[in-house]
Amino acid sequence: MRAYFAAISLGLLVLAASGAALSWDGAYYLYEILNNQTFFTPQSRYTDIVLEAPVLLMSHLTSNLSVLSLVFGLSYVALPLATLLIAWWFVRAEAPSLFAWVAVGTGLALLPGQFALVNEGQAVMFLFWPIVLAPLVRLRRAQWVALGVLAAAAYFTHPFAIPLFAAAAVVAILAVAFRRDLRRQNGIIAVALALFAIGASLRFIQYRSPYETDQMSLGTLREAFGALAGFPLLALCCAATIGLCLFVVPALIARGTSAGGRVSALRLIELLCVIGAALLLLLWAANPREWMGEIAYRTWSIFVTLPFMAAAVAEALRRSRRARHSLADDWPHRRSLALTVSLVFLAVSGVQGAVYARLTGKLHDAMNRTRYACLSTSSLPWLQESPLNHWSTTAHAILLQGRAPRTLVISDGGNCADARFAQGVSVAAWLPPTIHGGWFDLSGLSRRLFAEQQGPGPTGCQYGFGAGWYWTQEQDGTRWHWMPHRAQLRVVLAGGRPLVTLRAVVVSKPTPNAIELVVDGRLRARVAVASAGMLKLPIARLTGGAHTFELVSHAILSGGGPALGFKDVTLTAGARGHAAECEVRP
User: Fold this and answer.
1) Residue 547 pairs with which residues in a beta bridge?
2) CA quadruple 371, 377, 382, 383: dihedral, nearest 10
3) What is the pLDDT of residue 72?
4) I need a surface site. Which of 75, 391, 439, 577 has the fewest CB within 10 A?
């Protein structure tokens, strides 16, 4: 099994090196840990303390965020690797064939959610594999200690531990009936796991939040199905077929030579399914749009894992001595299968890691290129169809820049034009703005943001896309801005009373249509629009300062969605014949 664990270890190292631990919620975790110089344990998930301790200690030795991000990633890949090693340690002497279920259940079934390393919903699945296997084999003293540590860790990891503790207790009770030689051991395990299940239930009732309640609802399951649908679901079907073959083959081997042809056929099906799952997941991993919502896979992780756990238990509790011997005969093939699955894990992790490293490099380049202190993700169309399209990208962007960042990236549908920086920088919607920060020095960034927002820029006129814009689409090198019904432009002018004119190419989905332009709450113009055409609106002579331009679509699509699209949007300000083009803020 050295080759298996070498491939899994290498795959996990690739994830750590590519910055997978900063994907989705992970970036915000690391930002909070460093900025407040303490552990971050949302929803009272105290297992995170163990995983966060190395990076917190390292932050006292270095402020190099590349090093700290790597340490953070290595801590989070250590958990799945440790649990796989413990699962193998439990079964290797007595029932090594059972490890094939662990290999397929984690290496294929959970693979579409593995890149989101900071993910307690998936982590608890890894923790429970050794716990479920424990009643099926005879435990030595050191293994009892490991079992206790794993149970305690799972208890503080995620509410999924409640049904998993209950299921594992049922496994121990079944093992009491089927394994008379292990009755005392499994009686103790059954009682302990039942107590853990009760304790976890009481803890959930005491500490539950609206967030956790919502995450376990049917509505959330339906919403999260998008992370499962498509290539991951097809790959999961392949994994289920492999599991079915694994379960049937020992029974056929027990029949003797008469079933040799069917055994060979099933093993061929296994191989084809592994190849099929590999191809499907490699295609999925190569396209960041396919896995931009991977974090939601955690909601389904328990449902894709339990069937493999149940199959391992059913196989281990077979009464037939001949069936148990056939499992031993099947072990060389299962060991090869586990190795093949580990290579699939390595390949998919490598592709995802390379794609994600390219995306984060692209974000870093965008921050380096802009001369503004604020950059909105809505101005980066490529980002909106990638895993970086997440509320935590604001924190991620700070981590990419160092302790004294120069650019704030506003994510999750926000924009620089609508943001207010008088009180400082807010890294997440629920955090109060701060001027100075903590471990991170945000004072320089706060000053630049405030000054930039108050001034009209070097041209004497600047504008940005404000609230109401549906999305930004890049097509053939041209950027389209879409709006459903109402959308705003935030304009800042220098002194004087320049004539402001808006020009754009406009496309209307509902026809006929008309566009109304409201400036600072006052209707300034109303123009009829055909399906497509050039829009030119001389607005008015406006005083210096900040102004709000609101574009209103007279017609609305009955099913919702964007009604108007604008490209080549330009705003000019100045005297007739001498107007200068306003600068657009990203």
Assistant:
1) 491
2) 120
3) 97
4) 577
Mean pLDDT of 525-545: 76
Residue 248, SS3 per DSSP: helix
With contact defined as beta carbons under 8 Å apart, do 414 and 392 qualify? no
| Alpha-carbon span 231 to 236, nearest angstrom | 9
Q: What is the pLDDT of residues 50-77, one digit of tens each?
A: 999 999 999 999 999 999 999 999 999 9
C-alpha angle with apex 585: 581 to 586, nearest 5 degrees?
135
* 463, HSE (Cβ side, Cα atoms, 13 Å): 21
Taking the C-alpha atoms of residue 341 and residue 102, their distance in angstroms, rounded to an integer, is: 11
Cis amide linkage into residue 80, ω under 30° from 0: no
- How far CA 277 is from CA of 271, 327, 455, 548, in Å, comes to 10, 25, 55, 52
Phi, psi angles (nearest 5°) of residue 358: -65, -40
Cα angle value 261/265/266 (rounded, 5°)? 120
By C-alpha distance, which of 263, 342, 366 is closest to 80?
A: 342
In angstroms, the CA 147 to CA 160 distance is 18
User: Which residue has 């490699």 as its token pair?
Assistant: 282
Distinct helix (H) and strand (E) counts, the chain: 17, 14
Listing DSSP states for 121-164 in one string gives HHHHHHHHHHHHHGGGSPPPHHHHHHHHHHHHHHHTT-TTHHHH
Residue 512, CA atoms < 13 Å, CB-side half-sphere: 4
Find the mean pLDDT for residues 545-554.
85
Structure tokens, 8? 């899994």
Q: Which amino acid is at 321?
A: R
Strand, helix or coil for residue 172: helix
Rg (CA), the chain: 29
Q: Are residues 141 and 183 in contact, defined by beta-carbon separation less than 8 angstroms?
A: no
Do residues 197 and 162 lie in contact, with contact meaning Cβ atoms separated by under 8 Å?
yes
Decide which of 538 and 287 is more confident: 287
User: For residue 285, which of 358, 382, 339 has the smallest C-alpha distance?
Assistant: 358
Please tell me whether the overall predicted TM-score, pTM, comes out greater than 0.85 for this model.
no
Strands 513-519 vs 522-529: parallel, antiparallel or unpaired:
antiparallel
DSSP 343-412: HHHHHHHHHHHHHHHHHHHHHHHHHHH--SSEEEGGG-TTGGGSTT-STTHHHHHHHHH-SS-S-EEE-T
3-class DSSP state for residue 413? coil
Residue appearing with tokens 């037939």: 320
Place of tokens 């910055």: 19
Inter-CA distances, 28 with 24, 35, 529, Å? 8, 10, 44
Q: What's the pLDDT tens digit per position in 400-454? A: 999 999 999 988 767 776 777 777 888 888 888 887 778 999 888 888 887 776 6
Closest Cα to residue 129, out of 61, 82, 83? 83
Yes or no: say if 270 and 337 are a contact pair by the CB < 8 Å rule.
yes
As given in the structure block, the two tokens for residue 32 are: 């909070």
Q: Which domains does the chain have, with CATH numbers?
A: 2-358 (no CATH), 371-454 (no CATH), 461-584 (2.60.120.200)
